[in-house]
């Protein structure tokens, strides 16, 4: 047993991080946000119909193709079939990086469609998929999997995740539910680790009462608890990527959701008034984290599965 | 990320299982938790069996009489002994997990030869005399004095919360040898024989009703200078070695045990009807996630330790924070399942719920662990 990342896995993580930092750094994030936000703040009510302004495109198709070229979507396809021949642990590392930078788009659906839907593997096609009572990125997708008749747009909580509501709440679970949960957990992990970093960084530099606010124990302990949740979730998510065991995935999902949501909230608290602004990125992490918690049945389903696991397994 | 075990590790596991299956039925009945001499005899008896079978000091270096097992083998050992229901390390805790490893890494050849074999063979019990009435979290503020008189140190002061003091042969004792120096600088680590004249042990009753720990009063106790481990006034560094072991693998078996208890709690809920309460059911599901993750975190920490040559890192603080909290949540949930029976001290989980309260205090409180995480991992400025 050696649970640590292999050298190849570290290299993969470095590669994805470099690609995303170069192609989707803070400026790109804010530009995407501005596109999604349309003409400005006054439009809140008008936007309630969910229609996008301008050319209606928020997703950067050039970036999508670059992700395709870098193997983000084809990562797990066999090497002969145009893929990188990697496994779930590598996919989890890549999605963790996507979560760190708040990379927008139906990444999971497109990744899972690679090899099955033409153009998904190379990033030529944007693929989305119905998931329970919701579907993300419906208007921008080239291919939609699942039944989306009667889809009604919502004014999306996360400006960078447009969502439609599907009739008949809690529709049947998608066959890919397990992988959606796992990759979603990986994104949550990346976001949680990032908000912990941002919080600690802010706490080291922002001064009040003549010292960095990070010297105050109340702030220190918020940050420490963030890290504890991140590292616990990390162990669970990585292990689930190795075992692909449904109970391990459910556990990973629960802990990663919690680490991301609470991490973003605590990060907001550490930032004070700045944390409540549109200008700060903290709300983007929180809103995305909240959005991800709705995927593949959410916390209720995971907890019920894990409860069942306690009484069904052999003692 | 490899969670599979090598053929050698699997063979080690299989051999251990076979041995456990044969030896556990031959154990004498468990003594009453209040009968300390009997508990000592029981714990030492088990240690002797381990020794005879070649499992004593598994994770100790070979030149200290150990087996030089890898952290992974140690993990397998802790997992399998717990799963098989083998006795807990008990009174051998300090000898095997604190004092022994400290002597092994900091002691002279003579000291190792004197103190390590009896620990491994289950002949001597150690206790830990660190905390004092005025030095708990701020351990370096300790005031128990020791001064040199010929070949001896003469020690006066008092220790508190000393677990197993009543039945210990030796005490790893921290004393102040340079009263004028800055507080971390004037501390020395001594091995004190518990039968030396001038030692008074007064048991303290815990909230669970038992006497797990004691006050230890020291009135001009003579401790040979040869019993000093490390240099005079270098005791703080020596102590840090000990503490890192304490926070390293001390809880592995307990995580395995908690997972078993959680299953039992869920089954009990199914039996008594509490299972129909969705909120409670989901709470148990959430705890399943926590303990699964804690097991993975253990494997993570063990893998890291394997990479750094066996020295546990600050990851131990992260683990202890999460684990101590989860353990308390577990027995709170068990109480919820028990309903009115949660008021019955005759129920094992009721007693366990009481003892779980010590987990966020002993071996560094949760607040102190958070300070450590904030300062050493996140790089925040020293708190005030
Ligand atoms: C079951 C049990 C067994 C034990 N066994 C042993 C043993 O065998 N040998 C031994 O030497 N000791 C032992 N201890 C002692 C244990 O190590 C101490 O209790 C512990 O270090 C805390 O010290 P204290 O009790 O003096 O509490 P204090 O240090 O007085 O703490 C009181 C409160 O203040 C908080 N606090 C203190 N300092 C800070 C700070 N800097 N920042 C934030 N909060 C702070 C603490 O978190 C706590 O909530 C044992 C304790 C228990 C409960």
Automatic annotation (TrEMBL), chain A:
Q: Which residues belong to any copy of the Acyl-CoA dehydrogenase/oxidase N-terminal domain? A: 59-117
What cofactor does this protein call for? FAD
GO terms, molecular function: acyl-CoA dehydrogenase activity; flavin adenine dinucleotide binding
Q: Which residues form a coiled coil?
A: none
Entry-linked Pfam families: Acyl-CoA_dh_1, Acyl-CoA_dh_N
InterPro entries for this protein: AcylCo_DH-like_C, AcylCo_DH/oxidase_C, AcylCoA_DH/ox_N, AcylCoA_DH/ox_N_sf, AcylCoA_DH/oxidase_NM_dom_sf
Q: Which UniProt keywords apply?
A: FAD, Flavoprotein, Oxidoreductase
Top-level taxon of the source organism = Bacteria
Q: Which residues form the Acyl-CoA dehydrogenase/oxidase C-terminal domain?
A: 184-289
Q: Which family does it belong to?
A: Belongs to the acyl-CoA dehydrogenase family.
Supply the name of the protein: Acyl-CoA dehydrogenase
Give the originating organism. Answer: Streptomyces populi
Automatic annotation (TrEMBL), chain B:
Q: Which InterPro entries match?
A: Acyl-CoA_Oxase/DH_mid-dom, Acyl-CoA_Oxase/DH_mid-dom_sf, AcylCo_DH-like_C, AcylCo_DH/oxidase_C, AcylCoA_DH/ox_N, AcylCoA_DH/ox_N_sf, AcylCoA_DH/oxidase_NM_dom_sf, Mycobact_Acyl-CoA_DH
Q: Where is the Acyl-CoA oxidase/dehydrogenase middle domain?
A: 127-220
Looking at the UniProt record for this protein, which Gene Ontology cellular component terms does it annotate, in alphabetical order?
A: plasma membrane
Q: Which coenzymes or cofactors are required?
A: FAD
The domain of life is Bacteria
Acyl-CoA dehydrogenase/oxidase N-terminal domain: residues covered:
6-123
Q: Which UniProt keywords apply?
A: FAD, Flavoprotein, Oxidoreductase
GO terms for molecular function, please?
flavin adenine dinucleotide binding; oxidoreductase activity, acting on the CH-CH group of donors
According to the entry, every stretch annotated as the Acyl-CoA dehydrogenase/oxidase C-terminal domain falls at 233-378
Q: Which family does it belong to?
A: Belongs to the acyl-CoA dehydrogenase family.
Instruction: Spell out the protein name for this chain.
Output: Acyl-CoA dehydrogenase
Q: Which organism is it from?
A: Streptomyces populi
């Amino acid at each position: 047993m050696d649970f640590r990342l292999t050298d190849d896995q570290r290299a993969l993580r470095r590669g994805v991080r470099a690609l995303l930092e170069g192609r989707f750094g803070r400026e790109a994030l804010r530009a995407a946000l501005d596109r999604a936000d349309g003409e400005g703040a006054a439009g809140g009510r008008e936007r309630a119909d969910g229609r996008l302004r301008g050319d209606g495109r928020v997703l950067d198709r050039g970036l999508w193709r670059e992700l395709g070229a870098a193997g983000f979507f084809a990562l797990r396809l066999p090497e002969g079939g145009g893929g990188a021949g990697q496994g779930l642990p590598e996919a989890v590392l890549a999605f963790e990086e996507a979560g760190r930078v708040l990379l927008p788009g139906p990444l999971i659906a497109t990744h899972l469609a690679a090899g099955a839907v033409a153009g998904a593997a190379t990033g030529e096609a944007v693929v989305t998929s119905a998931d329970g009572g919701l579907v993300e990125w419906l208007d921008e997708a080239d291919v939609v999997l699942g039944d989306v008749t009667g889809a009604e747009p919502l004014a999306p909580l996360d400006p960078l995740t447009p969502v439609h509501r599907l009739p008949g709440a809690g529709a049947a679970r998608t066959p890919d539910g397990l992988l959606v949960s796992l990759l979603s957990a990986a994104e949550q992990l990346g976001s949680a680790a990032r908000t912990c970093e941002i919080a600690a960084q802010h706490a080291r530099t922002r001064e009040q009462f003549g010292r960095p606010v990070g010297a105050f124990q109340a702030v220190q302990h918020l940050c420490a608890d963030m890290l504890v949740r991140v590292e616990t979730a990390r162990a669970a998510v990585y292990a689930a990527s190795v075992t692909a065991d449904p109970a391990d995935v459910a556990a990973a999902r629960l802990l990663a959701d919690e680490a991301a949501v609470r991490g973003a909230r605590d990060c907001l608290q550490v930032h004070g008034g700045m944390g409540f602004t549109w200008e700060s990125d903290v709300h983007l992490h929180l809103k995305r984290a909240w959005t991800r918690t709705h995927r593949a049945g959410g916390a209720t389903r995971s907890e019920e599965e894990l409860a069942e696991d306690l009484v069904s397994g052999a003692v | 990320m490899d969670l599979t075990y090598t053929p050698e590790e699997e063979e080690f596991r299989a051999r251990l299982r076979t041995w456990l299956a044969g030896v556990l039925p031959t154990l004498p009945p468990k003594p009453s938790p209040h009968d300390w001499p009997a508990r000592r005899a029981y714990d030492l008896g088990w240690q002797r069996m381990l020794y005879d079978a070649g499992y004593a000091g598994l994770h100790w270096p070979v030149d200290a009489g150990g087996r030089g097992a890898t952290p992974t083998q140690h993990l397998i050992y802790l997992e399998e002994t717990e799963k098989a229901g083998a006795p807990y390390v008990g009174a051998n805790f300090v000898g095997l997990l604190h004092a022994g490893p400290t002597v092994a890494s900091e002691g002279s050849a003579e000291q190792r030869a004197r103190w390590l074999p009896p620990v491994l063979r289950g002949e001597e019990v150690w206790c830990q005399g660190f905390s004092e009435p005025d030095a708990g979290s701020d351990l370096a503020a300790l005031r128990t004095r020791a001064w040199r008189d010929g070949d001896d140190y003469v020690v006066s002061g008092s220790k508190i919360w000393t677990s197993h003091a009543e039945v210990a042969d030796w005490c790893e004792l921290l004393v102040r040898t340079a009263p004028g120096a800055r507080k971390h600088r004037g501390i020395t680590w001594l091995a004190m024989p518990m039968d030396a004249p001038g030692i008074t042990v007064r048991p303290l009753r815990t909230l669970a009703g038992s006497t797990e720990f004691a006050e230890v009063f020291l009135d001009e106790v003579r401790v040979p200078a040869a019993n000093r481990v490390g240099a005079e006034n270098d005791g703080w560094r020596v102590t840090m070695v000990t503490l890192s072991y304490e926070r390293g693998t001390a809880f592995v078996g307990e995580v395995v045990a908690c997972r078993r208890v959680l299953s039992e709690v869920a089954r009990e809920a199914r039996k008594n009807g509490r299972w129909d309460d969705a909120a409670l059911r989901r709470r148990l599901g959430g705890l399943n996630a926590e303990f699964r993750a804690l097991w993975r975190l253990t494997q993570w920490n063990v893998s890291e330790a394997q990479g750094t040559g066996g020295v546990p890192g600050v990851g131990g603080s992260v683990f202890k924070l999460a684990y101590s909290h989860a353990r308390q949540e577990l027995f709170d949930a068990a109480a919820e399942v028990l309903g009115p029976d949660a008021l019955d001290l005759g129920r094992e989980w009721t007693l366990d719920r009481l003892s779980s309260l010590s987990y966020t205090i002993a071996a560094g409180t949760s607040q102190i662990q958070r300070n450590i995480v904030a300062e050493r991992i996140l790089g925040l400025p020293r708190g005030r």
